[in-house]
From TrEMBL:
A GO molecular-function descriptor: tRNA (guanine(37)-N1)-methyltransferase activity
Cited Pfam families: tRNA_m1G_MT
Name of the gene encoding the protein in the UniProt record: trmD
Protein name, per record: tRNA (guanine-N(1)-)-methyltransferase
Residue ranges that the Swiss-Prot or TrEMBL entry lists as coiled coil: none
Highest taxon above the source species: Bacteria
Catalyzed reactions per annotation: guanosine(37) in tRNA + S-adenosyl-L-methionine = N(1)-methylguanosine(37) in tRNA + S-adenosyl-L-homocysteine + H(+)
Quaternary structure, from the entry: Homodimer.
Highest classification ranks of the organism: Bacteria, Bacillati, Actinomycetota, Actinomycetes, Micrococcales
Annotated EC: 2.1.1.228
InterPro entries: Alpha/beta_knot_MTases, tRNA_m1G_MeTrfase_C_sf, tRNA_m1G_MeTrfase_TrmD, tRNA_m1G_MTases_N, tRNA_MeTrfase_TRMD/TRM10
Record keywords, A-Z: Cytoplasm, Methyltransferase, S-adenosyl-L-methionine, Transferase, tRNA processing
Gene Ontology terms: cellular component: cytosol
Length: 234
């Protein structure tokens, strides 16, 4: 069946972009079943507050546990995977995107302010698998942009979402290396020529050249990604 995704946020309008493009199509064609929910709808007090001051003091506000408990209780089952976007989480990778694309139900809990009361995460982990995911080593204002990135990376791996499945395996990171450079017509533009090998029709030589380019680019830009056997001392 389709992959079910539920997103909880205080900015549901953020996610209207998921109505368009590839993921919009995945939704209308029934491959992706997406629900976006306003966390404030689960607040119980008159002011619908979702945050409060931190125990122990410190700057900023912490998201209160009660609305999050009600929100997650409304969708989470033992078959769910609950994702808390957080700069303190594990770094999100293509490997993790592949893993998440095989799951039946993903729940994203978008935190704002200085974070969510830790008991919400601990309680969710007692009912379902919990993964804290970071986009990388920099700070965003909340989990919404990270959730968008994860939903896009995972959504395009759902079988049938990307028309030509070959375009999935020929990308950066799928084989552990960065992509080779791409060219299209015209053969000369602003005095710059397309590498002649690409016009030669020699498929094996083209494949070898592209592999070389991948290795060279990876060595230059992301040397830590290079497998041992491709590392050379200079
Ligand atoms: Cl997932 N959340 C926030 N707030 N900041 C981040 C992040 C996530 N990933 C990198 N920076």
């Amino acid at each position: 069946g389709p992959v079910r995704v539920d997103i909880f946020t205080i900015f549901p309008e953020f996610f209207s972009v998921l109505d368009v493009s590839l993921l919009g199509k995945a939704r209308t064609s029934g491959l992706l079943d997406l629900g976006v929910h306003d966390l404030r709808g689960f607040a119980t007090d008159r002011h619908r507050s979702v945050d409060d001051t931190p125990y122990g003091g410190g700057a900023g506000m912490v998201m209160k546990p009660e609305p999050w408990g009600q929100a997650l209780d409304s969708v989470v089952t033992p078959a769910s995977t609950v994702i808390f976007p957080s700069p303190a989480g594990e770094v999100f990778t293509q490997r993790r995107a592949r893993d998440l694309s095989t799951r039946e139900h993903l729940v994203f809990a978008c935190g704002r302010y200085e974070g969510i009361d830790q008991r919400v995460i601990d309680d969710a982990a007692s009912r379902a698998e919990v993964i804290e995911l970071s986009l990388g080593d920099y700070v965003l204002n909340g989990g919404e942009v990270a959730t968008m990135a994860v939903v896009e990376a995972v959504g395009r791996l759902i079988p049938g979402v990307v028309g030509n499945p070959e375009s999935l395996t020929e990308e950066s990171h799928e084989d552990g290396l960065l992509e080779y450079p791409s060219y299209t017509k015209p053969a000369e533009w602003r005095g710059r020529e397309v590498p002649p090998i690409l016009l030669s029709g020699h498929h094996a030589q083209i494949a070898a050249w592209r592999r070389e380019q991948q290795i060279e680019r990876t060595r230059r830009v992301r040397p830590e990604l290079l497998p041992e056997e491709l590392r050379e001392v200079d």
